Amino acid sequence: MALIDPVLHTFVVLNGFSTTPYGVILLGFFAAYLAGLAVERIPFTRRIIERREAAAREGGR
Questions:
Q1: Which pLDDT value is given to residue 33?
Q2: What is the predicted pLDDT for the residue at 41?
């Protein structure tokens, strides 16, 4: 039950941000930043990106 209180508080705060256009824009930039970090940190996605880049280099020759 102790974990539910911070989670609910986070939803309330995010609901307050989502009612203003500036808040939605900020949340979007923050989510994009976190997604970029996740893609770079997860080894599986990094390998996919490296394979695509290698294929693009091979095909560009």
A1: 95
A2: 82
27: its two tokens = 């949340």
Q: Are 18 and 24 in contact (CB under 8 A)?
A: yes
Tokens linked to 19: 């009612």
Q: Is the dihedral of CA 27, 31, 33, 37 positive or negative?
A: positive
- Tokens of residue 3, six digits: 């974990």
**Cα separation, 53 vs 46, whole angstroms:** 11
Using DSSP's 3-state secondary structure scheme, residue 20 falls into coil
Q: Tokens 């923050």 identify what position? A: 30
Length of the chain in terms of residues written: 61
CA 56 to chain centre: 25
